[in-house]
Amino acid sequence: MITCQDLEKEIEKVITTPDTNSLMFSNVGDTFKEHFRNINIYYAWLTASVKVWKPKKIVELGAETGASTLALYLKKQKDTKLISIDYNSQWPFVPPKMLNDKKNVKLIAANDLDESMIKKNKKLLTGIDYLFIDTNHTYEQISKEAELYTEFLASPALIVIDDIQLGGLDKFWKEIPYETMDISKYHSCGFGFFIFNR
């Protein structure tokens, strides 16, 4: 079984700055490209982690602009499913190529704590082996997300949590009953991951 430390070493080997002049970034506008370049090491880590972990199903809770959604998409395997859930996002930075990949990309405009939405998408959510969480920075929010989404996790699953130094996330982070890896060097508000196993 791979450890968090070993996984991080593998990810660090393949981190590269995304080429914002590539076809994937066509028609997304200069504002997005500038945003992506300014925080490129954070997004580059997300992309590299997908390349190394090779998930079959990625679920993103909290997308805002869709920049992280794109980062998760860039190096995924051809048939990997990517589901992004955000109650307030229009995913403005998601390029046409992703929007047209309806077989593998599903954008759900909903509160990720909405149990009726979760029930409706139960089949779609089952088998998550990469979960990225970047929602409200409260202990209550992330605790409820853990309660609602754990049943859908594959084993093993990579769980990546953004902003672990904000709000109540630091308390939740300290309570995780698995080996954790703090990689806040990539993001000033905190950043980390752990490997879930049943």
What does the model show?
By secondary structure, the protein is an alpha/beta fold. It has a single domain (4-196), classed as Rossmann fold (3-Layer(aba) Sandwich), CATH 3.40.50. 37% of the residues lie in helices and 20% in strands. It is built from 9 helices and 7 strands. It has helices at residues 4-14, 30-38, 40-53, 67-73, 96-99, 115-120, 122-125, 139-149, 169-175; strands at residues 57-61, 81-85, 105-108, 128-133, 153-162, 180-182, 191-196. It has a 7-stranded mixed beta sheet, with helices on one face. β4 (128-133), α8 (139-149) and β5 (153-162) form a beta-alpha-beta unit. α1 (4-14) crosses α3 and α3 (40-53) runs parallel beside α4 (67-73). The radius of gyration is 16 Å and the shape is globular. The chain starts with a helix and ends with a strand.
Share in helix: 25-40%
Count of folded domains: 1
Global mean pLDDT: 89
CATH class: Alpha Beta
Largest sheet, strands/sense/barrel? 7 strands, mixed
Second rung of CATH, namely the architecture: 3-Layer(aba) Sandwich
Instruction: Give the low-confidence spans.
Output: none
CA-based gyration radius? 16 Å
- Spatial strand sequence of the major β-sheet: 3-2-1-4-5-7-6
CATH topology value: Rossmann fold
